[in-house]
Write a structure and sequence with these properties.
Two copies of one chain form a homodimer. The first copy, chain A, has about 425 residues and is α/β, with parallel strands linked by helices. The first copy, chain A, is built from 13 helices and 13 strands. In chain A, strands 3-2-1-4-5 form a five-stranded mixed sheet, with helices on both faces.
Chain lengths: ~425, ~425
């Protein structure tokens, strides 16, 4: 088999550990020089391929690539750009193939969530249609933990850990102050459709009655009356009330609590503003003094307290993607498979992309307590191993040392440019 | 000298390291059993004394007290309750003395910020007026870093570290996404009047042009035109713009950007909502896609990434307070004194309370860059040692192990109750 180059791109919202997957891909490709030439990364994700803006990762030192394992964000840039269907925008797919041909790319590694799995599948299909041999492997990444056919998604464990820790810490703060000051604390967390991240806040509780006292999931219709009654009862019982609320929390009719008319490039609503909305509701109906926090990017970038399980799995799916490609596989995704034993274990399996793309895995109902405001023991058993271990980065002058790559451009070979 | 008991109380907003000061007090008192009987802690701060709700810390194990060093929040509860002047509410002071007499309390350790220093001073003065011998020592604590006569305040270094790390991490996230998505990120941080915490965000930058690109200080009047021009230029130049904004940022006439009519028990305005205000301004004037985060309690409770310098200093002022009391001192505060050498060093000095109380230390103008949007090398040199070192707590099941004390009540001796 003639030696061919690989293309790697990061897609969608970045995470604390997506670069660990990049490290897995690049290091494994470097170990297999007999089959894989260079790994080119897309500058700003897939649009880097469309624009022929490729980064030559062979220019990075071994140590720089190793440091990716400890560096949050997307080292090559990511993007929110969803390729349309072949019928709607065939030109984009043809451009991709054109660029891949020009740079002798035979492996396409796409590191993202559900939308990217869909793109990856389409690229694979087109390569067949157009008679250009290309192996397309999707590498799972999403803090939302909503991909099907994998036990969990790299990126989620670290956010889960951050949210669980932050909830525990902030709750202790409120407990100290509640006698004369703040009675209600609201932490707004990410999770557009699935409540996995909000659920992780539930891990902060050790004993019955511990904070968080209320979790709001997108999966459970928000009932203001029931919610306010619970807040009131909680303050009466514990002196304070801690709420972890998913940004995707919505009313029965599907209206978001924090409605917003913004949409991102994938057509998703841009959310935020839920915490102040809830705070206002509590203040006007119950009169309690409140505080609220919106973790936003802090949660998904918090490499300083990443979960060891998460970092290891993110790295492993990167390694597995390259190995699967070398085995001639196509249109698949390395998946995380949980062992059946009582003690947590995991291995890497594989999932066909046509079953992964555009499907969202919600919290199962039995992970949510009957009243809809908490997590069950089943959820706890599922979540806990995912936040295990502290994969600390190294520090210099009190701050984490994160690598900044050189990101040297690959000289362009095509004459025509392509507007994205 | 007959053996007398000590009273210790936590006051105002709690921090990641105020319990380290408590550990310093209790452990040092235990080492000096010849002079100090028991250490009684106020349940929920000073109101615990007023209500005669005392906690017997002698019921806590050696290991539990040692673990306070690694536990955020206020282990005995804190409160926002400012004692008025002697003329306005003599009854409260007389009640304090009554409770202290009943429990043979000869040492008053008050752990708080400027308002508490003032209370501590008044208690000391009253003990003289009323002929009840009491040594009142104030132990500095405030994330705002605004106490005079001390190089810095325990509690600040850990918030500073958290904000610097979070700014660096979130900025890397935005940098990855800015080509097609978020262009502006705003992190709202605490700091009612002084911009120390916002300034700490500036440590995230290593090189010229690094994020954060704009810092908003309460000390610098907010000029919307200048601000928006800077945001626009920054996005043009770097592709994105990261802003760290102090909750206390205000217009030239003193109006807060995020005005609110709430006031806390000290008469301070309750702030918050600045980040969405700025975001709205940027969206409507410049049209950039934005994200914002409000760290709120997360920042001051973040013991998981506390600064080693901060933890050590918080412990040291607790130890020093007891030693000063044993030396017969009164109406003073142990202060942190920075060594003169090039290499950072510190020692404990003492500051008279009449010079500490009710005074706020703002950022000096030479710590803020000429344009008012950044920090200078002087600020960097001052701040950097305060965030040095990672004083990690221990973990169990992926979460920090924080101690929960038994907080056993001291039997009441007084017949009358006292409404607070």
């Amino acid at each position: 088999m003639p030696k061919r180059n690989a293309f790697y791109a990061q897609s969608g919202g970045v995470t604390a550990v997506i670069n660990a997957s990049a490290a897995g891909v690049i290091e494994t490709a470097r170990e297999n020089k007999q089959a894989i030439g260079k790994v080119y990364a897309g500058r700003n994700g897939i649009i880097g391929a469309l624009r022929e803006e490729l980064i030559d990762t062979s220019k990075e030192s071994k140590s720089a690539i190793a440091q990716l394992r400890n560096t949050p964000s997307g080292a090559f840039g990511s993007c929110r750009h969803k390729l349309k269907s072949l019928e709607e925008n065939r030109a984009e797919y043809e451009r991709l193939i054109e660029v891949f041909k020009a740079h002798n790319i035979g492996y396409f590694f796409y590191n993202g969530g559900g939308d990217s799995a869909d793109t990856c599948l389409k690229v694979s299909q087109l390569s067949k249609t157009m008679g250009y041999p290309l192996q397309a492997i999707h590498i799972p990444k999403t803090i939302d933990n909503d991909l099907p056919l994998t036990d969990n998604c790299p990126g989620f464990g670290s956010v889960a850990k951050y949210i669980a820790i932050s909830t525990r810490e902030a709750a202790m703060d409120v407990a100290s102050m509640c006698e004369t000051s703040t009675k209600v604390f609201i932490l707004e967390v990410m999770g557009r459709h699935a409540g996995w991240i909000a659920a992780a806040g539930g891990l902060a509780a050790e004993h019955e009655g511990d904070a968080p006292h209320i979790i709001l999931f997108p999966e459970i219709a928000f009932n203001p009356k029931k919610f306010l009654a619970r807040v009131k009862r909680c303050v009466k019982q514990h002196g304070f009330c801690v709420i972890v609320a998913s940004e995707g929390a919505k009313y029965k009719d599907g209206t978001l609590l924090a409605g917003s008319s913004h949409k991102d490039a994938f057509g998703h609503h841009q959310l935020g503003g839920l915490a102040p909305t809830l705070a206002e509701m509590i203040k006007s109906e119950l009169g309690f003094k409140y505080h609220w926090a919106v973790a936003d990017y802090l949660q998904r970038a918090a490499r300083h307290i990443a979960s060891t399980t998460d970092v290891e799995q993110a790295y492993a799916v990167g390694v597995a993607a390259v190995k699967m490609a070398l085995q001639g596989k196509n249109a698949i995704m390395p998946a995380i498979v949980r062992g059946k034993g009582k003690r947590y274990s995991w291995s890497i399996g594989e999932a066909p992309l046509e079953k992964v793309a555009n499907e969202e895995k919600m919290m199962p109902r039995n992970y949510i307590s009957r009243d809809g405001f908490g997590i069950t023991e089943e959820a706890r058993a599922y979540l806990q191993p995912l936040i295990a271990g502290e994969a600390y980065p190294t520090y210099s002058k009190g701050l984490p040392r994160y690598v900044r790559l050189k990101n040297v451009a690959v000289p362009k070979k095509l004459k025509n440019s392509f507007a994205v």
